Batch of 4 targets.
Target 1
Amino acid sequence: MRRLCIWLLDRVLPAEWGDHVIGDIEEQRERGSLWVIRQTVAALLLLRGPSRRGDGMLASFIGDMRIGARHLRRSPAFAVTAIATLGVAIGATTAIFSVIEPVLLRPLPYPSPDRLTFVWERDRDGSSDNLGFLTFHDIADQAKSFQYTAVVGRWEPTLGGDLPERVIGSRVSWSYFRTLGVQPTLGRDFLAEEDTPDRKNVLILSYGLWQRRYAGDSSIIGRVLDIGGTPMAVVGVMPQSFDDVVSPTTEIWRVLGYSTTQEWACRTCHHLLMIARMKPAVSFAAATAETDRIMAVTLVLLIAIANVVNLQLARAVRRQGEFAIRSALGAGQGRLTRQLLAEGLVLAALGGAAGLLVTRISLPMLVRQLPAAMPRLDAIHLDTMGFTAVAAVVLSLSLAMAMVSSRRRGRELAASLRSGRRLATGAQHLTRSTLVVAEVALAAMLLAAAALVARSLVKLLDVNPGFDTSNLLSLDVYPVGPRYNTTAATMQYRDRLRDVVRAIPGVTSVALTNQLPLSGYVERYGVIDPDNPPPTPEQVPSGDRYTVSPEYASTMRIPIKSGRWFTPAEAIDTANRVILVSEALATRLWPGQSAIGHRVQFRADKTPTYSVIGVTGNVKHTGLDATRALAFYIPERQWYFADNTVKVAIRTASDPASLAPTIRRAISSIDPSLPIIRVSTMEQLIARTTSQRRLALTLFGAFAIAALLLAVAGIYGVLAGNVAERTREIGLRAALGASPREIMSLIVGQGVRLGVLGLLIGFAGGATLTRYLRTFLYGIEASDPATMAIVISVLATVVLAACALPARRAVRIDPTEALRGD
């Protein structure tokens, strides 16, 4: 863009000014493209004189642009309206496109990304699930379609040192980076022989962590770090450009280090995510569903084009006398066309500049609405020279063509010149009416989408999550390090934590668990009835594992449907293990029977077994819209191992956020070296699970409001123009006895007809748009009658509002004044 501007200035400006302006642009290379464009436009419009290349067509065209700028100054209402319309449309479009392009449309930043795929297990009901290690082991060993396979597990280590820090990490199989097709920029990749239980303590750092924590020290390779009290060696650093789209927030990786004999490496322990790279000879259809989200961007841009073209058409009628005089003085069709094109370009340039300003304001606001875990957030930037340039060119050409098509033939221009009246042809009326119908149709589509998402969100927030979300605070603590190398030490810390938090005034109850519903963490294990095992391991239902303290059910207020909760004495009895299952899991394992008294285990070839003593209500674990509710609850001391993840659920008597600082201090007093993270209320956790729907509502709602305003402006412009053009006709009707009610019905009826036609077309086209919204809808169909009634009511209101002022002006026309001069 800088080179293009310099070339244009060199061709057009006088030599004495051109060298100065071009030199200034070349020296200010740190300035952005927006500044270069602004300087170029200002120089072309303000600096006059013969160009160094002569007074050719290009110089004449620049002169036409100056004339166009003067016309805009003489019509400030039109200029402000048109520029604002273009600015809002281009700005909103560019902001959305700047998010969509790197996050959804840009190919994955890996070699041959079309050969990468996720691999899931299928449950008996057809739902997808993560894999157990043994299943991955079999696939990696036997599958012939894959070049590489890898699994990823969650890991949140604590970096030791003077300032302990909790970071987001991933446990990966040794082939993870080979599957993605990337290599470390410093050091080396993991080795196959390191992916074993006794050699797994090796690390690869992200570029950001290497710079932030270790100041980019190249001697980091081979250095042994304290990771939660365990020494681990750094073997590599990933490139700065590496983007882990599988786990976007990961800053450190270690090898998985599983063996087939470990309890948590079983086939039914579904806590690993599998990816694979297909061999070159194997192909599959690329997914395209994500591109549906750009639909709203296109619709708003189309509405803006239609509205500004309508403004130009109405203005063309007022300028017929000017065109007639210029034609009579010898201006040919080409000269007038060039003038109109220049004016369109000036308007589009100013609208584009306004759009850039809107984008700079709206893009940061939009990014703040995105989920923090969304991939490639760092890649989002203001894409001004791409989409904005295209939008400006499309708009300018559309405006120019509309202006050219509005010109009168020579005979009509002469008639206009003789009569001094504005003459509007049937073709112009048809064009303007068609554009208004299109605006209403597009507005109806966006309004329907926004209404559907809004009603769906309301229904979703009314869903019972299976526990009481009020006055509930959650936080994470990780007791790791030399002090907690034994189960006894870990359990002692947990008991101490409960005691200090429970003693805080305002805290009514405290419970500990390995995971909380709606927290984003998922850990599942297969649950087997040893008295009636399934024929194959793949048919074993997997449930969300909750290892909890005795106060968990009362703190979360999860209802007990049958049986009972375990007592504190049972919680520490490792000889007689007990378990509670959710209603959904009980129905799955023992349909038509009582679950109480049945036994379960987690590996068919392993003991111990657990006796079912109770059935709980179903809890929404992964989201309010989740249909899966298989879960089980085990006393924390009765699981195979002590979890180093301690999630604390705290019930308070009042606002839990106000107690958060006090709770932090109390927990830190036990062991200040342990970081406390993810402090949030349950309402905040729920808001995160609905963030995508809220984002969709924000986008469609903003677009719908913009579309409605543009549609109102379009209808008003057409009717106001018609009233001005039909002043004598309306005056004659009034003189012949037409009542104000009849005159008002004449004008309002025209607007209503346009609105109804647009609404019908919009509903027909909306069937396509709303089809893409199904993933955002909950408890409502895309063709919901109540939503359609809302859309009709809103559009009817705005159409009548747009008709009111022109109709009022028509009623007030004085027949004597209107007919004077005929």
Note: The chain has a mean pLDDT of 77.
Target 2
Amino acid sequence: MLEKSISTLVDKEKQDDDTLVYIIDIETYEILYANQRCIDDFGSIVGKTCYKVLQKREVSPCSYCSLSHNNNSLEYPIGTHVEWENINSINHKHYLFNDFIVLWENNRKVKIQVGIDISKQKSLEKELTYEKISAISSFETLLDSTIEGILIYDKQKHCKYINNVAAEMFGYTREKIINLSALQFVAPESHALVKSHISNIDQKPYEALMIRKDGSKFPAMLRGHDLVLAGEEIRVSAIIDITESKKYEEKILKLAHYDILTGLPNRVHLKDYILRSIQRSNRNSEYNALFFIDLDNFKTVNDTVGHDIGDLVLIETARRIENSIRKDDIVARLGGDEFVILIDIGEKDRELVTNRVSVIAQKVLDELKKPYLIENYEFRITASIGIKLYNDNKLSMDELMKYADSAMYNAKEEGRNNYKFFNPELQHIMEDKILLIDNLRRAIEEDSMRLYYQPQVDVNGVTVGVEALVRWIDPVKGVIPPGEFIPIAEESGLIIELGEWILHEALNQIKTWESDKDKELWRVSVNVSSKQFAAENFVEMLGEVLQKSGVSPSKIRLELTEGILIQNLNETLQKLHTIKSMGLSLSIDDFGTGYSSLSYLKKLPMNELKIDQSFIRDLIEDDNDEIITQTIISIGSQFGLEVIAEGVETDEQYQKLCSMGCQYFQGYLFSKPKDAGEL
């Protein structure tokens, strides 16, 4: 009856198509009952030993079965419940077993064993486990593929995960780093900084100093983010070692603040020093001094031996200046051969300061004028120094530099190889000059310049050409004479821009005159300055301007002074022959006032000699001027050159020149310089 009741109960409550139900004697392992599912899978098994018929090749009780968990199975108390899992070796299904110890007929202690087939669930679980492992593996691979070190901390800021990049960065194995505190990777000097940032849920990147296992430190960029993963609060920190970036940044900073050639502070860095110096002077009313140093005729070094040797001279100059001053004084290179010294005197007495500064300046000059032995060359170089003293903040950095620069130019004008303190009166002259340069530049840009033309006539008084003479028409001052602005243009270098403008205007005027029968054959003489002629692109510029104008080159005559012609004679000859081959004609202006020499005259491809007006002025009264003039005319005749006298103001001069054989004339006797429309 008990067996039937249990069977009914089991079949009714537990059984389904995949459920196994057994009743097994726990002493003998005899199967007392088996449901239909058991019979279908394992055959006629009732009355047989369970481990022999329910598993393959088992000859003793199964070690994984609950009956075998105790050496004496009979000691299991009635009512014991055991749950366990097993994959059957016959049908290969995965079962979840629930065992219940009950009392059977004849007081036999049995186990009711119910096995539910969970093969599908286990297969799904296996797939999920594989996907989880695969996802974790992919996640770790992804993290190991980044350039950032990745650390994951728990709520207490202890490390729970680290990628290979971070492990290598800090010098730990991944196992050794687990459970270490976040601050263990931070250098002590950055603890406070990092603590302030990790309190932020989502922080912006910041820099901190990190520490490796071996104690070495390195700069890093850090960024962290708090989040909840699988119900656990964690913090993900990303770290990039920026050691190389810092080195590059320092290199860029050095390039921005230091002179590449000499290693001295440059103009940008000097500005910081000067601003601090001004503030210090204002605070304690003690004098500081600014030296502006410029080497004398340094360009000659570059021109004669090249820039590579010139650079070595500059490096040696920087070293000598540094050796001439105190340790705390500042030396900077502005560029080229210009240096600046900033000296903190620490005295309030101006006379005492002046004496001390003078000693330093002379020491620098003495050091710089010693022979330079560079490679196989020996150079003798001097310098000019301008000095500006200051003890307040009334002057800006630019003003201090300007005044020291002005004093330096005064030193050059007084013979070079000396020093001068800033002189306010001379500064006014300098400022007027600077203003004039600015106004001249603006006049050229805004087309405030005008060309006037003075006729050149032959012995019959017939105009054969004109000389182009530039005039500055200032809206306030009116006409400014060339004698006031041409020297300034030469000094500032504006003469190159002005000379090109004059050439353009002259060619445009020639083009206009081509439609005038009285002027269509006129030639225009244009003065060329030394700086303009020396420019590397001068010949190229001539060709471009002529081609663009469409004017015949034969209608342009370039006037050059003797001083231009004898400089770098070989290079000059090459340029002159090129110009001549382009169809232009050439004239030596102010002949006789410079370096007149038949030895160079015979080499020059010239067309004309121009007698300077200084010889014409006293031609009638001064026998010497008459002799010089006659000689020039004779030289021109012998060399087959045209000769023109300028500055002819009286008929008596004109007649005298005609009798001497002069061919062409220019001066007030014939016409003053006029606007093109008045000719």
Note: The mean pLDDT is 86.
Target 3
Amino acid sequence: MQHQFSKVEYAARRDKTLQLAKDLGCQSVFTFGENKNGVGITWLTGWGTTRLAYHFLSSQESILWILFHNHLPAAQRSLKDVDIRDFSLEDIEQIINKFKGNKIATFGVVPKEVRNFAQKSNVELIAIDNEHNKMRSIKSDEEIDALAKGAYATDCGANAIIEKCKVETNDWELLAEARSSYTRLGARDHICYLCVSDMTMPDRDVPAQFPEGRAVAKGSVVTFEISASVAAEYPGQLLRSIAVGEPSALFKELHAVADQALSNMRKILRPGINAMELVAASNVIEEAGFTTTDDLFHGLGAGYLQPIGTSTSRVPVHKPDIEIVPGMAIVLQPNVTAKDHLSGVQTGEMVIMTKDGFKDIHHVKPGFIVV
């Protein structure tokens, strides 16, 4: 399974970014990233930031500096209309010097060296992160296609976890099954979080970011949140809970409340509503005496984006006073937990907002899975 964004897509992204900069009195943009944290660089060039990388964009130039010379060949094979160079602070200082007394827009965490260069050249750095994040929350047709392919790969990983979830299997093995299934398709990791706990003596409420060697047993509950992608920063996202044997009364109730919250949110989700209406639709969680640990819903695709909302009892709380519009990719995930945070369930997945409602792009069986 392959996905390549077109030259037309990248040209449109760069034009939109330059327009944001021009609206703030800037004629160019510097974008920064490091160690897979550089969504702006990925969005503008297609480079899934490995180590340190800077990108400069103007109406005449698109330059990408990459740390480690042995990373350049991969970039040169895959990127479109980008001048790819070895990392050089001297090179970057020279470009900043060309803008003496003017403004440069920035996206990402600005390194100290760049701030020093700008100060010496009397260049004002103007952050466009918030404006750019809002712009990226609305997906193009090519982006939606990439997310749908990521959802398919994610579903394959989820089904592998469900199939492998047997007594004496540990979380390392479940993770390996998931990764193996979507890697064979040409997909890559985004996240794969797992939790193995006991339904009668639970001791954790959300999946762990790292496996701990916990083994599945009769009476275990396995919860997971998984995302795979075929294009960097464009994953699907799916969350499920698996009971090994008959679910306990507590976990039946937790999941029933989660199912109801998810159903309530799906019933009202459509373009034109305020995201706070989704928060209100989840009040069944607090009414049942439960709470949440994770966000209730969030945007995804080219970053973790608005709308980001939490249930009313979650601390810290997010209250997104934002209109839902077509083109948003939203993960609905009412992951209900007990107030003592020793037990919890996972459910939900990503949907794509359309003109009339929303489209499901995941196809794993919903609800509490019993094996």
Note: The chain has two domains: 7-135, 141-370.
Target 4
Amino acid sequence: MLGHIFENLLEDNKEKGAFYTPKEIVHYMCQESLAEHLASKFDSKQKETIIRLIQQAELDQHQETWAKQNATEIILALEKIKICDPAIGSGAFPMGLLQEIFNLMVVLHDYKGWGKKNEVEIKKHIIQESIYGVDLDAGAVDIARLRFWLSLVVDETKPQALPNLDYKIMQGNSLLGIPFNTVINVSEYAKIELFKEQYFAESKPEVKIDLKKQINTATQNVLATHNQFSNFKVEFDFKLFFSEVYHGANAGFDIVIGNPPYVSTKNISDADKKAFMQLYGFADDLYYHFIIKGFELLKPNGINTMITPDTYFTTLTKKQLRNKLTTNKLCSLLHLGHDVFEEAMVSTAIFIAQKNEVTQNETIVIDARGKKELSEAKYYTIPQTLYTNSINGSFFMPNETNLKIHNKLAVKHKALIDTYWNKISTSRDIEKNKTFLNKYRENLKEGDYTIIGLVTEGGQGMATANNGKFVGIKEGTKEADRIRETRINKLQEANQELGTNYIMPTTETETVALFDEIKLHHGRDIFGQGYLYRIVALNNIADVTILTADEKNKGIATGKPTYVPYDKGDKDGNRWYLPTPYYIDWSIENVSFLKSNTGKKGEGMPVVRNPQFYFRYGFCWNNNLNENYLSIKCRLKSNGVHDVASMSMFSLIENVVPEYYIVSLINSTTLGLIYRNFTNNTVNVQMNDIRTFPLPVPTKKQLSTCKKLFDEAVLLQQDFFAEKISVAKRDQQLLIVQNKVDDFVSELYNL
């Protein structure tokens, strides 16, 4: 109940990325974490026995014999266990572990024949000695402490005071503390610990108040000393406030567990980004930092268990996180998908890892996506090195299809990435290594494997920051007809909002002038952000094939047609071919404004990216996919200018690896599978995702086959947009072509 109160009544929790974890998930994570911890201390082969003990399930004869022989040692280990949730929220995970440890202690006491020990005392000992937690939200800390008190109350006829949790469950920022490699003032820490021991043992309120003041003074002295030389303010530190956990060579927590906030990089303050860079060497999604912090907080062989977004399975920006998990012991990986949080539209996963740099280990991988019960999930046992050596180091589900792709391509792909990625990961790298890369491309021959990034160049296009001013719709298109209708409504809405009585002019020139004037006086977004109202006459469209280099670079002089094709991406995701209805006014005046103001701070400022790629044929793709759609939707890009939503690439060896060949491969089911399972399991297709795609250098025969299929698909799209065939006919015929393409690509990759 308190967990639901925490989620629903604390208004800004969802903005902070805090969500209440369902009971079944908490149950699973707590049991597995405790079992992994005890199995590592006693016998890894007895993990199933320990799980059954925790669950109070029936044991077979061998299991029961082992449990009875080791009962005393297990009890002693449980009495010393230290658990921390660095994003404790309402306390669901420590509460879950409290219950699992309690259940196990009761069973073990029974095995020893010690009789029915006071269950409240067992719980109180666990709460007082084992449970730690931190949260940024003071309300969450209060609720967590209350839950522990209630857990004792339910077992008592006369409620007692809550065990002192002032220095066990605390408010603070878990991610910003004194760097762990900082040499500590041992005497100061010892003083704090002595005060805390006295504080916990003291019963007189007035004495406790005085001791608390002394503890706070001593801790603030340590923090103040550090903050004199720090670039960011530290208010909480694990080693300082939980100093009793960090004694000796075996210092640290036994289990770190939790559900860290789902907050993306863009929601992190600039100050925190700088602090993260200093502490971690990177600034990324908060859950990434919590995972790294989890390992830092653990003692050797400690267990790190978290439920987080599953974006770290594949995305390039999380490759170092995958490396962190696989250079420790990755015990298990549970892929849950979208079926966990009702309010959070995020696909999730659970990992359980041990702080132990092993080289050989078997990892349990569970695919529970779309399953209501874990018993319905698919279980796989794989060598951990499978992930170390996979395409992009990805955490793929090891089903038959994915293993086939892995076995065929992983070794070749890893060699290419290890050798060349640092030379092509950005447009700047490609330019810097131009000579080396040209020589590499000259030596490519039929049958070689490469990656798309080694045979192409490209980048994002411009953001005008005011499309209404610069961009129009070609006359005679459906989009132009739609604008004529919507302009009337937009003008009426503006009149109502502004209290004006503007009248729609009768000519196109006057209409555009009126809309420009209203925007100038009443704001860029008066008609709605990005609303386009210009209709471009055919006689004002330039022939881009005859533009001079100077006109492409500086703009077209007045008196000539000035509008050129403008590729704005394609939210509908048309494959193969799309005639753009959008045209940008490439006049000298406009180009001068766009380029001279690019990148300036402030609302409405344009960003002109990669102008060296304008006015070239190439290929682009729909960069925002439906999560259930496997394949990317790729097409040729027309000769013109492209914007930020139309990330475009261009072949550098068109005679060897032509763009129609690359488009065909990207549109195939094979590359779709590689994308979803090995490259990026999110809905955003990034430039570097495309750059990493493995690519066989085709034979002339293969190119001939591919060109015929590509031309057939393009012709169908052209007929559809020319309204020669219906959408149903187009889709029916394209499906036939798509199947042929899939067969061709599957054979090409030998799959």
Note: The chain has a mean pLDDT of 89.
